[in-house]
Amino acid sequence: xxxxxxxxxxxxxxxxxxxxxxxxxxxxxxxxxxxxxxxxxxxxxxxxxxxxxxxxxxxxxxxxxxxx
Length: 68
Description:
The protein contains two helices and two strands, in the order ααββ. The protein is globular, with a radius of gyration of 13 Å. It has a two-stranded antiparallel ribbon. The protein has one domain. The two termini are 21 Å apart. By secondary structure, the chain is α+β, with helices and mostly antiparallel strands.
């Protein structure tokens, strides 16, 4: 998921091309929450967290509930 921190988001953009290959198709700079909302879902619960022990460009994490 794309970081809210501008500096980290910039690195996600810079490293995206290589990361897709190394991360087996993982897109580290996708605006996940916005994509869910744009798809017509309403977010009822959301928790922001970080994946520990992961490279910084893939640490941002959200978990929650979205309803159609």
